[in-house]
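Box S1 | Example of a co-folding query
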Amino acid sequence: MSSWLYSEKVKDHFMNPRNIMFDDEDFEYDAKGKVGNIKCGDEMVFYLKIDPDTLTITDCRWKTFGCASAIASTSVLSEMIKGMTLEDIYNISNVDIMNELGGLPDNKVHCSVLGDKALQEAVNNYYRGHGMEDKVHDTESRIVCECLNVSEEEIEFAVLEGARNYYQLQEMTKIGTSCGKCEEDARERLAFYLDKHFGVKEID
Ligand code: FES
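Box S1 (continued) | Returned holo structure for FE2/S2 (inorganic) cluster
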């Protein structure tokens, strides 16, 4: 008999997603953020209601056509953020969402960042629309390996897809396979994303 790879909490949030936006719902929002991820197969949109005096999130909705992991992780995220300030949003990590969900299969972790990215984009859009551009967190991805044109975002994605050491990262992205001068920077980014998403160090 086949069994689910997912925790009970993931199943619950997938089957009964919280704060999901229904097509016919008239939800008045103050900010909206949208991101797409072709590898995950779809798009995520987050809507926020924000108290302008305290810059606190009072309510939210989201919608996606993504997979079970994207739905469950965004559902749990939508419960976590009510009452948070906009600045708090930038400090939410994947580890926090994973812990809340009781884990996800490794090859599904990349789907869980969709909701988080759409949420951060909504906060950035709120700042942009209210004369607070100085508070916007830049999401532009820096190029780490100039020879192979590999960005920080691609390193992060490779980590979410299972890269646990520099050699696996090279197999997945080809980073550092030409002049090699980017190796130190690449290893530093690898360590950063392993810690950020899984709370672990590089495994040899
Ligand atoms: S900069 Fe990465 S191999 Fe040259």
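The chain has a mean pLDDT of 87. The chain has two domains: 8-135, 143-198.
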